[in-house]
Amino acid sequence: MTLALEEAILRLKAEIIAQDWRLSPSRAEQLEAAFASLRQHFAARKPIHAMLVMAANVLAYIKNRGASPPETIDFLKEAMAHVVNLHEDLSDDPEGEETLFRGLYSRFSTLKSKIQHRSGSNPQAVAPPTPPSAVLEEPAGSANQDLAPARSEPDAIARHSQDFLSTLNNAGPIGARIAPLFAAWLDSPAVSALLRGTQEPSPLAEESPCPPPGNAISACQPTPVTALAIGGITVAIPTNAIAMVRPLAPSVAGIYLQNASVPLKDFAKFLQRLAQQFRGSLAQVDERTLLGLSLPVMIPQGHDLPETPPPSSNLLIILSSGNRHGAILCEAAANAEQTMVQFAKQHNGDIAGTASLDDGDTIPLLDPFAILQREGILLIRE
User: Fold this and answer.
1) Residues 6 or more apart whose Cβ sits within 8 Å of residue 353
2) Burial group, residue 219, by CB count within 10 angstroms (0-12, 13-18, 19+)
3) Count of alpha carbons within 13 Å of 232, Cβ hemisphere only?
C-alpha cells in the first residue's frame, strides 16, 4: 500500500513522540508501509533514501526478534526525526543532507556491530530468527557509504549525547521537559561546531567593532567578516551582524522575493526550538513570537549593487543589530570567516568603505547597521 507523502510523515511523527517504546506488530506494519512509501517519494534524494533503508533494516530486525531493544528504538527515532526535519526544511542543501547521512551511517554500523557481538558472545542467548548480519544490511546504493567517517572523540560524544537524550525522553514528565532543552543545546552553533571539529562561531557584539562610516580611519580592531555575492558583486559584512544563514530552494527564494518578507515559521524544525537556530538577540526572543514573525527582505543600496535581488539568489542571510532585524538574499556566502584589520571610508550607499583583510586582500564593506536602521523591523523584547 502506497501512502501519500504527508500521511507517511505523520506516521513517523506519531512514532517519534510515542511514550510507549514497545513496538507492537501493528505499529511495526504501519511504519513499514510509511518507510516503503517514503523511499519512493525520496528516491532522487540519496541521503534520505539511504536513511530510510537503514531504518527499514533495523525495523525488520525488531520484527524478527519479537522485541524492541532500547538501542534499536533509539536509532529508529533518530533516523525518523532526520527524515521529518529534512522533509520540512526549505533549504536546498545536499551537503547538509550528506553530513546527516554520514553521522547516521556511523551509528548504524555501531549498532550492527553491537548486535552481532551480543548474539555471538552468549551461546545460551536466544538468537533471532534471522541472523543480525543478514537483517541489518548496509544500505545499498547509499551516498558515499565507503567514505563513512572513522569513529572519533566527537562522534563518541555525539552518540553518548543522543543516548542521554533518549533516556530523558523515557524518564517521565520531568525528563520530557528537560529533553527539548538538552536537544536545543546540542543543536546550538557552539556545540555543533565542536562536534564537527570546526572553529566555534565568533562571539557576537551588539555594536559595530569599527567606528561608524563617518570617521575615516586606517586601522581598526581585528574584526571577523564574511564575504557575500550580491548580484555578482562580492562584498564583506561584519559577521557579528549575521543571525542565520540558510540555503533556499529556488522556488522558495522566489516566493520570498515576491512577497518581500520571510516568515520565520518556515524554519521551525520538528522537536527543536526555533530560537536556538539564531545567533545574537533573536536567540533570546520568545518562541511563540518568533513563530509569528515575518522579516522584511531588505535590499542593499549602492553603486553596482542590483536594484532588486537577482533571480539567482538562493541564500538567505538574516541580519540583526540590537532590536532591529531583517533579511537579505544573495547568491553565495563564504564558508570561512576572514579578518578585517584596516578600514578606509569610501561611502557609497550602504557600502561603508573598503576593508583590508589580514591576508592582504581588499573588499568593499557593507554596512548592515545602516540597512537595518532603514528597512529592518524593530522588535522590543519584554
Assistant:
1) 213, 343, 344, 345, 346, 347, 364, 365
2) exposed
3) 6
Residue 102 · residue 147 · CB < 8 Å: yes
Stated as kind and residue range, the H or E segment containing 244 is strand 242-247
Residues 46-64 pLDDT 10s: 999 999 999 999 888 888 8
As to burial, measured by CB atoms within 10 angstroms (0-12 exposed, 13-18 middle, 19+ buried), residue 25 is exposed
DSSP character at residue 297: B
| CA–centroid distance for 192 within its chain | 10
Q: What is the CA radius of gyration of the chain?
A: 24
**Is the pTM value of this prediction over 0.85?**
no
Q: The sheet that has 377-378: what strands, in order across it? A: 242-247, 315-321, 324-330, 377-378
Q: What is the pLDDT of residue 88?
A: 83
Contact yes or no for 378/324 (Cβ under 8 A): yes
What per-residue string of b and e applies to 358-370 under the rule 16 or more CB within 10 Å gives b?
eeeeebbbbbbbb
3-state SS of the chain: helix, strand, coil percent to 5? 50, 20, 35
C-alpha cell at 92: 536546498
State the pLDDT at residue 375. Answer: 93
Contacts of 24 (CB under 8 A, 6+ apart): none
- 122, exposed or middle or buried, with CB in 10 Å at 0-12, 13-18, 19+? exposed
pLDDT recorded at residue 250:
84
**Cα 374 off chain centre by:** 30
pLDDT for the residue numbered 303: 73
Predicted pLDDT at 70? 79
**What 8-state DSSP symbol labels residue 298?**
-
Which positions of the chain have pLDDT values less than 50?
Answer: 121-135, 137, 140-152, 198-209, 211-217
**DSSP H helices in the chain:** 5-17, 25-41, 46-65, 70-88, 94-121, 132-135, 153-169, 172-186, 189-196, 250-259, 287-291, 368-375
Q: Tell me the β-bridge partners of 351.
A: 348, 366
What does DSSP assign to residue 1? -
Look-up: residue for cell 559584512? 237
Task: Please name which of 38, 192, 204, 163 lies closest in space to residue 100, comparing C-alpha atoms.
Answer: 192
315-321 and 324-330 strand pairing: antiparallel
